[in-house]
Specification:
The complex is a heterodimer of chains A (448) and B (258).
Chain A: H1 2-26, H2 50-53, H3 66-76, H4 78-85, H5 88-91, H6 98-102, H7 114-118, H8 122-130, H9 142-147, H10 150-154, H11 161-167, H12 184-188, H13 191-194, H14 204-209, H15 212-220, H16 240-244, H17 270-283, H18 289-322, H19 340-344, H20 365-387, H21 390-423, H22 439-446
Helix pairs in contact in A: 3-4, 17-18, 18-20, 18-21, 20-21
Chain B: H1 2-13, H2 16-19, H3 30-40, H4 42-50, H5 52-55, H6 61-65, H7 72-77, H8 80-83, H9 89-95, H10 98-106, H11 126-130, H12 145-153, H13 159-189, H14 195-217, H15 221-224, H16 229-257
């Protein structure tokens, strides 16, 4: 009896530090994150993740005071000097010079990270860091999640630089406060967000601009006073920042009800109810509370319908998987290089919790169709519903229905083909090198 | 040497004798524009004549500058003079980039009378990069060589930063080209019973490869990525799937014939 308790206890006591030690060890490679030992950064990554990869230039030697930097750069890079002159940094009584953020030794210059900005902007920095408690998706965890994605590790680093450009919102402040003006007025406008919040999986720009709020902004926004804080009564219509950064609070994920629409959540938990009340209070700046509650429940309805379609598609794929009809099977596709489990136990990944987010290149066509249905059609519908664009909701759901229909038709075709093969007594021949070879596929295997 | 030439040209364009000449007001025909400007600045007309606007699409002075001489340069410098024709992905990849959104937000307070030179614009609009310093050939065309093209960015960015961004852009494009050639050789290996479907996929490959190029040129992460690389991956999957299914159907048909 005693053994039954003591032995598992000892195993647990040994396993916990071992896991910590493994995670610590895995982060000690040339890259960053859990798979850091499997990749090295592209030379340009230092500009997106300066804390980890930026290398100071060795072109100019010397220690310089602020005025000297400005004097010299006025001739070399006049654009950024003009920009800085227009900033509060240059116009405030205590001028913030180049060297205050970049250092004064030209051979040890650094790019300012959020911690550097936080030396003065402590409130915003603390709020920004504290966003981590809402988990992912969030701005502060964006870089960690990017580099821990299997496709990021697997693909050539030059290719996935496009990922870290947006995910650098976690490692630099100039994603929103563009350098060297760092203008709060600019950062308050919706355009500050759309370089990253656009495109198939997150059409926040299109869906917002098509909403009544967005249309008002497009028609009148240029004449609004953007120096006003993001607070009740200051703006005729809400913008991205008005709702997601209430009163300038730097915690965009704070009121995240549906977690980007990536997975189904339970809208009835007490935690979710707390967030809901925050939304209702915010909408009440202009609207009646009952109306806001109704919109939120309409969003829940939309999500319910979306997940019915998505689960139907997942079921279709999972049936194909158990009938071994997904061609080529996992063993005949290029595996993620660092995943020993994949090699030991090749398995097609279906759905959010199995890692669907990385399943868009080394898979079969029907799985790719589901990826697009989940990541493009579904998220488009979600963003439309959340931003108040009914036409976008209808179009997203039409696309999802069409994708589901295509997936189910294809599943039946695959089933019929396999039955016909069985009847004729031929075994489905392996796909051979079809998925494994090719100019890019070969290059990808060798460049992590 | 090249830098000296660029400096010399820049000096020449800002020379008071040229810049301060009185500008006649009123409307002019295309022929009048060309006649007068050939006398004043023959190189400008030469640049335009050699470029694709003149050669392939017949775009003359009026298309960008309007008919009225007053404010004609200001009109042409603004993005709107380009986006009327260069719409869709070409324009969207720029308008959602950091440069694009800042240019849009600053448009009202930007002094568009300033020449397209370093220090005069907070962010580059279409004309700042593609007609830098008023050069009427495309200053961003690859045949201008890296020095001229990278010089344009140097008004704000460090030479090392520019070099690294260009180098990464080239690597991204090489990768897109590898995908393109992977697709081409897969299509070439296919049994020719679904030419239509495969030719659609070939078009799609080329379209997505072009998106990568636009994404790099305009610094739009979204065009480099979602409209570009993973879209190319999708094309490759669908080409392979066509080939696999058609080969299975073929062996089934062969078997039934026997």
């Amino acid at each position: 009896m005693r053994n039954r308790i003591i032995i598992p206890l000892i195993i647990a006591l040994l396993a916990i530090p071992a896991v910590f030690a493994y995670v610590h060890w895995s982060k000690g490679g040339t890259g960053t994150g859990l798979y850091s030992r499997y990749w090295s950064p592209d030379p340009v990554q230092g500009y997106w993740d300066p804390d980890n990869f930026y290398q100071s230039p060795d072109s100019v030697q010397g220690i310089f005071a602020g005025e000297q930097c400005v004097q010299c750069h006025e001739g070399i890079t006049p654009g950024i000097v003009t920009d800085w002159r227009g900033s509060r940094h240059a116009q405030s009584e205590e001028t913030v010079y180049c060297n205050d953020c970049h250092g004064n030794n030209h051979q040890q210059l650094h790019l300012p990270t959020p911690d550097v900005c936080g030396n003065c902007h402590a409130k915003q920095h603390d709020e920004f860091r504290d966003e981590a408690r809402y988990g992912f998706p969030s701005h502060v965890l964006a870089m960690e999640r990017a580099v821990d994605a299997k496709h990021f590790v697997d693909k050539p680093k030059a290719e996935v630089q496009s990922c870290v450009q947006c995910h650098s919102v976690a490692t630099k402040c100039d994603s929103c406060h563009s350098r060297h003006r760092f203008d709060a007025e600019e950062a308050r406008r919706p355009e500050a967000c759309i370089t990253c919040h656009s495109g198939p999986p997150h059409p926040d720009d299109e869906t917002y601009f098509a909403s009544a709020h967005g249309k008002l902004y497009l028609a009148e926004g240029d004449s609004w006073d953007w120096s006003k804080p993001l607070a009740k009564g200051n703006y005729k219509a809400p913008t991205c920042a008005y709702c997601h950064m209430e009163n300038g609070r730097h915690q965009v994920a704070e009121k995240s009800l549906w977690k980007f629409g990536l997975r189904e959540i339970n809208p009835h938990t007490s935690k979710n109810q707390v967030l809901r009340r925050k939304w209702v209070k915010l909408c009440s700046d202009c609207h009646e509370a009952e109306k806001a509650e109704q919109w939120l429940s309409e969003l829940d309805q939309e999500r319910k319908q979306a997940w019915q379609k998505l689960y139907a598609a997942e079921a279709s794929l999972k049936n194909l998987r158990s009938e071994k009809l997904l061609q080529p099977p996992a063993g005949e596709r290029p595996p993620y290089p660092m995943d020993w489990l994949d090699t030991l136990w090749p398995r097609e990944r279906i759905g959010f919790f199995e890692g669907q987010a990385s399943v868009f290149y080394n898979v079969s066509a029907i799985e790719r169709d589901y990826f697009e249905m989940w990541y493009f059609d579904n998220l488009g519908a979600y963003k439309s519903a959340a931003h108040g664009n009914p036409a976008g909701v209808a179009s997203g759901h039409r696309k999802m229905a069409a994708s589901l229909d295509r997936i189910e038709t294809q599943a039946n075709e695959l089933r019929e083909l396999s039955q016909a093969e069985k009847k004729a007594g031929i075994t489905t021949k392996p796909s051979g090198n079809l998925w494994m070879k090719g100019a890019y596929t070969d290059y990808n295997r060798e460049h992590n | 040497m090249r830098k000296t030439i660029v400096w010399f040209l820049a000096l020449l364009a800002t020379h008071p004798a040229l810049a301060d000449e009185p500008v006649p007001s009123g409307s002019f025909t295309e022929t009048e524009c060309i006649t007068c400007h050939t006398e004043r600045d023959p190189s400008l007309i030469r640049q335009w004549r050699k470029g694709s606007h003149s050669v392939t699409s017949g775009v003359g002075c009026h298309s960008c500058h309007g008919e009225n001489h007053k404010e004609s340069a200001v009109k042409a410098r603004k993005d709107q003079s380009c986006t009327g024709c260069h719409e869709g992905a070409a324009s969207h990849s720029y308008s959602t980039s950091k440069h694009g959104i800042i240019t849009h937000l600053e448009a009202a307070r930007q002094d568009w009378r300033q020449p397209l030179q370093h220090g005069n614009y907070r962010t580059p609009g279409c004309s700042y990069c593609h007609l830098h310093n008023g050069d009427h050939g495309n200053t961003m065309a690859p045949d201008r060589g890296p020095e001229t093209r990278q010089w344009i960015c140097a008004g704000c960015h460090s030479p090392r930063y520019i070099r690294e961004q260009f180098a990464n852009g080239n690597r991204q494009l090489e990768i897109a080209d590898l995908k393109l050639s992977e697709g081409e050789s897969l299509i070439a290996s296919a049994v020719d019973d679904q030419a239509d479907a495969l030719s659609k996929l070939r078009k799609s490959l080329n379209h997505h490869r072009h998106n990568v190029l636009l994404g790099i040129g305009h610094q739009s992460p979204d065009y480099q990525w979602w409209h570009g690389q993973p879209a190319l991956d999708g094309d490759l999957i669908r080409i392979r799937d066509r080939i696999l299914q058609s080969s299975r159907r073929k062996s089934l048909a062969d078997n039934l014939e026997e």
